[in-house]
Amino acid sequence: MKVKIVTAIYNGLFGTDLGGRPGRNNPYKYSLKSLLQMSNADFVCYTSENDIEDLKNFFYKTHGFTEDRIKFKIYDLRKHHFADKINKLKNLDETKKSDRCFEIQYAKFVWLANEYRDNDEGYDYLYWFDAGLSHNGLIPFRHLIDSSEQFERLHTSPLFNDKFLNNLIKHSGDKITIITKNNTRHFWSQTIPKDYYSDYSKELHVIGGFFGGEIEKVYEYLDNFNGILEILLTRENKLYFEEQIMTFLYYEFPELFNTIYFDLWWHEDQIINGISNMREYIGDQKSFFKILTELNN
What we know:
Number of domains: 1
Strand order of the largest sheet: 3-2-1-4-6-5-7
Mean pLDDT: 95
CATH architecture: Alpha-Beta Complex
Number of strands: 7
Helix content: 25-40%
CATH class: Alpha Beta
Distance between the termini: 21 Å
Order of helices and strands: EHEHEHHHEHHEEHHEHH
Oligomer: single chain
Largest sheet: 7 strands, mixed
């Protein structure tokens, strides 16, 4: 059984016409290195012309990974298939201040489709993982490694391993594993206009941090996503986050998905204004990191 994981790292987007989180460089490299503990998967990382040599030096020369384990591919975000439509709807001043890049959000589905079509090696399962998923904001320190290197300590979790990957594949079965968050008690996001829904609901919000499964079902999902994205870009006067579109698809095509549910992002190590006892506040609610521990059992 062959598995491919697709991801991306782009630096220096904050303050530009693309928008994006500042400070991606070392945190995202060490986080992706953590994800590579899933050694039974092959990785493809999309990136920019400006970033690719630095990434190759870090992964190939410094840390000894080979191209068989992780390949880097250049993709110009400004040449996205829907670039003209995105730019017509984009507020440039807001984008420069934003930590979210719409081109990256939408390109997840382009990159996955690229890897589906370029499947000469016969991959059975295809997943997306955000490169920055492994970090102490999501995972308590008891599930991170002890290291004198700051970035390694904050971004390396042994929870990402082959047991996790194998259980993820089992969970996916012949469908797509999708992560849904409680969107009522801990409201996270609106969704696309309810007129598009057959049966409108926003009780659950789909998370785009990682998803995927059986490769043919993933391609069907990608086709559905790009279809509704083109309609939204044509009819609406605003840009919607990829997770808002994914949430719509979750309700419209439930037969595609095997779902994993969580309640809130927070864990016991975090300091939140107005909350004096995080363990007591969390109680029996399911924190995101417990998805990772459950898939290690």
